[in-house]
Amino acid sequence: MTLYGIGLGPGEADLVTVRGKQLLERADIVYSPGRLSRSVALEYVDEDAIGDLDFPMTKDEEKLRRAWKEAAEVVAPKAREGDVAFVTLGDPNVYSTFGHLRRTLEAFHSDVDLEIVPGVSAMTAFATALGVEIEAGAGLSLREAANGASPTGPDRMILFKVTDAPATHEGLIEAGYDVRYGRRLFMEQGETLITDDPTELAERDYYTLAYAERQDLEIESPTAAFQRGGHQ
Ligand SMILES: C[S@@+](CC[C@H](N)C(=O)[O-])C[C@H]1O[C@@H](n2cnc3c(N)ncnc32)[C@H](O)[C@@H]1O
């Protein structure tokens, strides 16, 4: 039998994929690493099918390794005898807790069959929410900007974990970027906020991302001239 790593999408239950929904509905047990992913999963799974695991909120590597080893010891026998799921918001392979479980299972329980169901990641959902188009031929880099960090370099960046938007903003503006922010995009839980004013985001909320684009960026698309006022 199989352990399914299922991406739930950004938070709205109807953005779970059809495949993800079908597997959730037939899973014997569904493990969830957090409150938000649990509330999305509960749209498709009975409360008594939700499995209990302790997920550590620590950066201590030793504690993390131990906790994931214990979690894998609970999950592995269940996945040998039935179909179980482990859900994460967004996609299971993008900045996700699922990676800890996958690596631990591969190291200590390599006989467990594992299948991953991709989800709509915030990495792509942001474009629709913020009205951004990444044209064919353009590059887009994913970075982390926790605790006020301002990574720079690429022409266009999507920044996760923007926990101190005012500080991140200052660094990005200084480096010549235009920046827009999205908080709780496509999420049922909490209010969605889209803004280019970092003071509106002074209160810390983990589910905040930013899109930064170089101010002097030339958009090379045959139809871009129309938006710039060209009349060819
Ligand atoms: C640990 S990463 C998980 C990413 C997830 N696996 C995915 O593919 O979207 C968490 C970060 O993703 C971003 N994020 C995830 N979901 C979001 C949402 N619905 N709205 C805004 N940002 C989101 C935030 O920057 C957050 O700090």
UniProtKB/TrEMBL annotation:
GO biological process: cobalamin biosynthetic process; methylation
Annotated family: Belongs to the precorrin methyltransferase family.
EC number: 2.1.1.151
Keyword line: Cobalamin biosynthesis, Methyltransferase, Transferase
UniProt name for this protein: Cobalt-precorrin-2 C(20)-methyltransferase
Domain Tetrapyrrole methylase: 2-141
Pfam families: TP_methylase (PF00590)
Keyword Transferase annotated: yes
Record's keyword annotation contains Lipoprotein: no
NCBIfam families in the record: PRK05576.1-6 (NF004063)
